[in-house]
Amino acid sequence: MKIGLLGFGVVGKGVYELARMRQDMQVAKVVCLEDITLPDAQVTRDFQDVLNDPSIDTVVEAMGGLHPAFEFVKAAMEAGKNIVTSNKALVATFYDILVPLAQEKKLSFRCTAAVGGGIGWLSELERSRRSQTIQEVGGIMNGTCNYILDAMHRTGLSYDEALKQAQGLGYAEAKPATDVEGIDTWHKILLSSNVAFGVTMDKDSVPVSGISQIGPQDVAAFQAHGLVCKLVSCARRTEAGISAYVQPTLYPQGSLEAAVPSNYNLITFIGSASERMSFYGQGAGRYPTAYNVLQDCIDVLSGKPFYVPYGPVVQAVNQEPLRFYVRGATDSFLEENTQEHWGEGIVTAPVAVSRMHRWHKEHPQAFLAALSQE
Ligand code: HSE
Question: Is the whole-model pTM more than 0.90?
Answer without folding.
Answer: yes
